[in-house]
Amino acid sequence: MTDAELRAEVSRRERIAFEQAAEEIRAAVRDDPALAELARQLVIQQVPEGLRIQLLDTERQPMFPSGGSTPNDRARALLQRVAQIAARLPNGLEIAGHTDATPFRGGGERSNWELSAERANAVRRILVEGGIAEHRLHSVTGKADREPLLPDQPTAAANRRVAITLLRSAAAP
After folding, report:
1. Which domains does the chain have, with CATH numbers?
2. Are 118 and 70 in contact (CB under 8 A)?
3. What span, in angstroms and rounded, lies between the C-alpha atoms of 104 and 46?
4. Longest dimension (CA), the chain
């Protein structure tokens, strides 16, 4: 087998593993009455970097309290389920916290930068508690409002989210 064929085979197997993991996460949400309400807040897609799992806020159902970095019980349960599924894969992970463009009103020196980083780090802790080995974590970052999901609606609730990316082998540093 040539190097190119080997890379293609690794890529194919990884794509299949990501598809299976995505379906397992969707099924876990669908089949658990406590998590089923979050189905519309979960976006899972394959991107060039790997498998991206995003948990979005809605106006009626935020994942975190306003200005806070401790996820609510449902978000925590969903993240624990994601950790259990992701722990079975060998891929590295990146975690990013995002805010909307509404200025942070928490007072002091805190801003959306701190808030998004604190939320990403809270997700990191839950994933590690759920079985993800620390050495698999490649980055935990706060993006503030710099990468909105809905650029035409910078203050939309969906821009407040956390993104967990299972990295493709080729994307890992």
Report:
1. 3-171 (3.30.1330.60)
2. no
3. 31
4. 60
The token pair that represents 75 in the structure block: 């978000």
DSSP state at residue 128: H
DSSP 125: H
CA dihedral 12, 123, 74, 168 (to 10 degrees): 0
- Tell me the per-residue pLDDT of 150-160, one tens digit each, with 9 for 90 and over: 999 999 999 99
Beta-sheet pairing, 93-98 with 137-142: parallel
CB 137 within 8 A of CB 93: yes
How far CA 58 is from CA of 4, 48, 92, in Å, comes to 44, 26, 29
If we measure between CA atoms, which residue out of 66, 59, 62, 87 comes closest to residue 75?
Answer: 62
Distance (Å, rounded) from C-alpha 162 to C-alpha 104? 17
Q: Which two tokens stand for residue 98?
A: 């995002």
Q: Which residues of the chain register pLDDT less than 70?
A: 106-107, 170-173
